[in-house]
Specification:
about 120 residues, mainly alpha, globular
Length: about 120
Amino acid sequence: MPHCELAPQDKAQLGRQLGSRLAKTYGKKRFYTTSQVGESLRSIGSKIDVHCWGYALFCSPGDFLDYHASLSESCDYAAMKSEMVSAVTDGASDSWFAFDLSWLEWPDIDLGSIFDF
């Protein structure tokens, strides 16, 4: 199922809720598996048509692409991750963003204020 469009504030809310759930459930990790992200998305009550945005933010590029290939879907990991990071950080990432960075590697951002640790 292709991802749906989300307003930046909805992307930010999804990213924050999902990041908080992942960190509380699985600890702080560079990337999470698609199974861990999927379970966490379901546990926060996220609608399935927005799950792709969560996978883009918290899965490795390879896992994201493998997951979508298994569904015969094609989603742009770099573009989606860039949009999610920009939304979650309120645009603070726009000047340095690299699509393969884990959320733990985002520079100069107080993660405690983004995710509810």
